[in-house]
Amino acid sequence: TGVGGTPVPSLAPPITLLVDGKQQTLVVCLVLDVAPPGLESPIWFSADNGSSLDAFTYGPSPEADGTWTSLAQLSLPSEELAAWENLVCHTGPEAGGRSQRTRPLQLSG
């Protein structure tokens, strides 16, 4: 845990919200054991096809046990997100490097 630990990403179930009369879907990825501030530990989402989707990232924040946690959120129009079959959260080196990832979250019917 802490520096040198393996980051552990997990996806929360999607939440659908009404924003300005339109449905938006919010997906949150919580990553435990991220690198402390000053060290790179990016978080990104993909459609499980090598793509990279923009997300807002918060943290890292210190935990009581000395580890660090980050949170990333992705918010898109529900109809756009429904066009994807799967969503994956990644953390670690930028796309192309070896990263930790969640299991694909199935978004379509």
From TrEMBL:
Keywords: Cell membrane, Disulfide bond, Glycoprotein, Membrane, Receptor, Signal, Transmembrane, Transmembrane helix. Gene3D superfamilies: Immunoglobulins (2.60.40.10). Coiled coil: none annotated. It holds the Pfam family PTCRA. The keyword Cell membrane applies. GO terms for biological process: negative regulation of thymocyte apoptotic process. Its main location: membrane. This is Pre T-cell antigen receptor alpha. GO terms for cellular component: plasma membrane. It is a single-pass type I membrane protein. SUPFAM superfamilies: Immunoglobulin (SSF48726). It is found in: Cell membrane; Membrane. The keyword Membrane applies. It comes from the Eukaryota. Heterodimer with TCRB; disulfide linked. This heterodimer assembles with CD3 proteins into a signaling-competent pre-T-cell receptor complex. Interacts with RHBDD1.
